[in-house]
Amino acid sequence: MPQHLYHLFAFLISAAIVLITTPWVKELGLRSGRVDIPNDRKVHDRPMVRLGGVSIFLGTLMALLLIWKLGGFIDTDGRYLDPATEYEIWGVTIGGLLFFLIGFADDLFNLSAITRLLLQMLVASVAWSVCGVSIDFLTIPFLGLVELPGLVSLPVTVIWLVGMANAINWIDGLDGLAAGVSGIAAVVLLVVSLFMEQPAAALIAAALAGGALGFLRYNFNPAQIFMGDGGSYYLGFTLAGVGAIGLVKSTAVTAVLLPYIILAVPIFDMSAVIVDRLRNGISPFAADKRHLHHRLLNAGLSHRFTVLFIYALTLWVGGLALAFAGLPSGQAYALAATSLLGYVAWKAWNYAR
Fold first, then answer.
1. pLDDT reported for residue 256
2. DSSP for residue 223
3. How many domains does the chain have?
4. Which terminus of the chain faces fewer neighbouring Cβ atoms within 10 Å, N or C?
5. Is the pLDDT of residue 148 over 90?
6. Helices (H), 152-302
7. Which pLDDT tens digit goes with each residue over 232-250?
8. In a domain, 324, yes or no
9. Residue 284's pLDDT band (cuts 50, 70, 90)
10. Secondary structure of residue 144 in the 3-state scheme
C-alpha cells in the first residue's frame, strides 16, 4: 500500500471512531453525573459532560494500533523502523496515554494543580530517559543552532512536553476552541513531517488530527460535550511529542523552529497569561479571565466568532510554518492564510466597534 494512504486511513479511522463513540461517552457521563457545572468564570450556562477526551484518545490510539498491525509504520525507504525510532513512537504513544489518565483522574476526582504538575513532570522525564523523546537542539539568538548536551536536554524537554499539555488545557475555554486549534496544528505537523521525511511522526499527527477534528462534530458551539482535562492534556502532550521526535531531532535550523511556530497560538497565550498574573502578584496557576478568548469576548465578539478568529490565527502561523519549511507552494499557503486572517481581523474590528 502506498505510504500516503496509511496517513489518510489513520485520519479517517480516528475520526470515525470519535464520531461513533462520543454519543456513548456523553450518555455514560450523564448517567454517572460527571458534568462540568457553570460558574462565573465559565461561559456555558448548563451542566456539560466533560469526558469527551475519552473518545479522542480511543480514536487516535485505535487508529495507530490498526495502522501498526497493517505494517504502516515504516521508514521513508520502505523498511521497518529502527529500534531508536520505534522507542520514540512508543514513548509518545504511552506518554500520551499517561497524560490522558492524569487528566481523566482530574476530571473524576479534581486533583490539585501541584499533583497534576508533578505527575506530568514524572511522565515527561520517563519519556525522555527511557524512550528518547527529547529535544536535542535549540536555536539561540546570536548563537544559532546549539546542541543540548546530556542532562541539559532533560529540563528543556520536560518544559516543552508539560508546557504544551497545559497550554492546550488553558485554551479549552470555549466550545470547539482547543479541538479546532489542535486539529489545525496536527494537520500542519502532518504535512511538515511528511515533507521532512518523518512518516512515523506524521502517522501520529494524522490520527490526532482525525480525532480532534472529528470531535468538533459534537464540541463546536453550541457544544454537546466537553473534552475535559483528559482530552486537552492528551492533545497537548501528543502534539509536543510529534514535534520533538519528528522535527526537533533534525539539525536544520528551520526544522528546530517549526514546532514552536506551528503551536505559537497556545504558547503565546499561556506565556502572556503567566506574565500578566505574576506582574499582578497572582499565582500562575490561578484560574481567571486573562486568556485571549476572554479578551476577545470582552471586546464584543460573539462566542462563535471568537473561536473562528483564533482558528484563523492558528491557520496563519501554520501557513508561515509551511513557507518557513520550504514546502512547494508554501509561500502561497502563507499568503492565503494571511489574507484570511486579515479579513477575519477586519470583521472582528467591526464587531468590536
1. 81
2. P
3. 1
4. C
5. no
6. 153-170, 177-195, 199-219, 228-246, 253-262, 264-279, 292-298
7. 999 999 999 999 998 876 6
8. no
9. confident
10. strand
In a domain? residue 63: yes
DSSP 33-64: T-EEPP-TT----S-EE--THHHHHHHHHHHH
d(CA 322, CA 146): 23
Q: H or E stretch including 171? A: none
Mean pLDDT for the chain?
90
| Nearest by Cα to 59 from 207, 223, 238 | 207
Q: Tell me whether residue 192 is in a domain.
A: yes
Strands 137-140 and 144-147: antiparallel
User: CA 55 to CA 25: how far, in whole Å?
Assistant: 7
Quick check: helix, strand or coil at residue 248?
coil
Sign of CA pseudo-dihedral 222, 228, 233, 238 = negative
pLDDT (average), residues 308-335: 95
Q: What is the mean pLDDT of residues 310-322?
A: 97
3-state secondary structure of 227: coil
- The pLDDT-based confidence of 206 (bands split at 50, 70, 90) is very high
The candidate with the shortest Cα–Cα distance to 135, out of 119, 124, 121, is 124
3-state secondary structure 277-333: HHHCCCCCCCCCCCCHHHHHHHCCCCHHHHHHHHHHHHHHHHHHHHHHHCCCCHHHH
pTM more than 0.70: yes
Percentage of residues of the chain with pLDDT beyond 70 = 91
User: Residue 189 carries which side chain, given as an amino acid letter?
Assistant: L
Containing domain of residue 85, as a range?
3-262
Q: What is the pLDDT of residue 36?
A: 72
Higher pLDDT, 276 or 250: 276
Spatial distance between the Cα atoms of 193 and 255, rounded to a whole number of angstroms: 9
Nearest Cα neighbor of 29 from 220, 227, 235 is: 227
The confidence band for 61, taking pLDDT boundaries of 50, 70 and 90, is: very high
User: Secondary structure of 66-133 in the HEC alphabet?
Assistant: HHHHCCCCECCCCCECCHHHHHHHHHHHHHHHHHHHHHHHHHHHCCCHHHHHHHHHHHHHHHHHHHCC
